[in-house]
Here is the input.
Amino acid sequence: MAGVSRLQYTTEARLIRVMCSGRVDLEFVLRAFSNGMDGVFIGGCRLNECNYITHGNYHALTMVLLCKRIMEHIGLNPERLRIEFMSSAEGILFAEVMSKFGSKVKELGPLGKGKGEAIDQNELKSKLAEIRKLVPYIKVVKNEKLASRLENPEEYDKLFTKDEIETLLHELPSYYIDPEKCQACMTCAKRCPVEAIISAKNQIHVIDQEKCIKCGTCFEVCPPKFRAVTKITGEHVPPPLPEEKRTIVRKKKEEGETDKD
Ligand code: SF4
Ligand code: SF4
Here is the structure.
């Protein structure tokens, strides 16, 4: 409506249209900051006026509340992220909100260099890259809260606390494949969403900790008869087995022994 009515608003904004504000993933917002955006604004339909039964705007709201805490953890001013709800007919409101947000972002200055931020650009890049890698894990762990429908703005600040996010990001689990137990059945490697498991036939499997996004799938899918994947929290992950020691030597069946034996 703002465009049709030729309303003026901040010229620095770049619009990305999505079907629903609920489509805006936490990763998208963090990616925008990684790509150097100084602010991110999400406009959604008014709460309880969603066209879909999923009420995606509530998801967008909880995602923003979580992202703001993550930004605080990284050392970014959470005011760089804003969500507002309005109908498509409210062009004047949209133009006003966008202009105000544009002024706010200008006042805050460049990302990482604004008031109270002072983060080295390389450090900021690596922190954002690290958090982006953890998005699937964060979403799984905070799934219940992310599904909340907050009716009252007074509840917003209480949904995620600073301490909660500090704890979440300091107590990250790691997954490790016990070489004594792995039978190279390849189940975990086939299910890993990011190909973080070094896998080959008759080779003990190894998790590439750099690639692992801590989703826990390998832990869930390793057959109970092997239970080769261990979840480790607060301890160092043992070093990976050297490549030359990964081959599994299977015992040959004794003469006359059948598969059933
Ligand atoms: S936890 Fe397991 S399945 Fe998930 S990314 Fe890491 S190695 Fe892959
Ligand atoms: S699922 Fe378990 S036994 Fe099978 S390859 Fe993975 S770690 Fe090894």
